[in-house]
Amino acid sequence: MTTLILDEPVKTKLRERRRSPRTSMCVDLIVCGAGGAWQERTCALSLNAQGVLVALGSNVQIGQTVLVRDPDSFVEREGRVVNLGRGYGRRREVAIEFTEPAPDFWLDR
């Protein structure tokens, strides 16, 4: 078995391969399962034009379609779960990628 070891400059390059810059900002959101099967109030941990990282207690799977809704304006964007991260008690980091880039979704925040 071969182990790949990356030096620091390579790791940095890999982290910087984003389509748009990430912003760490606490933004209130509602995440809903497709068809309204469930909904959960949460906040963004990190966001960009392509999606958002949230902490969810709901059981979601990679590839699952979800809606991300602004609780004040009820504007929503469709996305899909692309990664499941660290857990925090009953919640887990969930990366959601929007179906289409939506930089306007984060305006006026």
Short structural summary:
The protein is mainly beta and 109 residues long.
CATH superfamily: predicted glycosyltransferase like domains
What portion of the residues fall into strands of 2 or more residues? Answer: 35-45%
User: What is the CATH-assigned architecture?
Assistant: Beta Barrel
**SSE string:** HEEEEEE
CA(first)-CA(last) distance: 48 Å
Q: With helices defined by DSSP (H or I, 4 residues minimum), what is the helix count?
A: 1
| CATH topology (level 3) name | Thrombin, subunit H
CATH uppermost class: Mainly Beta
**What global shape is seen?**
globular
Q: What level of helicity do the residues show?
A: under 10%
Please report the total strand number as a whole number. 6
The strands making up the biggest β-sheet line up spatially as 1-2-3-6-5-4
Structure classification: mainly beta
Task: Walk me through this protein's architecture.
The structure is a single chain. The chain has 109 residues and is mainly beta. The protein has a single domain (17-106), classed as Thrombin, subunit H, CATH 2.40.10.220. The protein has one helix and six strands, in the order αββββββ. It has one helix at 8-15, and strands at 28-33, 39-48, 51-56, 65-69, 76-88, 91-98. The chain has a six-stranded antiparallel β-barrel. A hairpin with a 2-residue loop joins strand 5 and strand 6. The longest helix has 8 residues, at 8-15. The N and C termini lie far apart (48 Å).
Task: Please tag this protein with its features.
single chain, Thrombin, subunit H, six-stranded antiparallel beta barrel, 6 strands, 7% helix
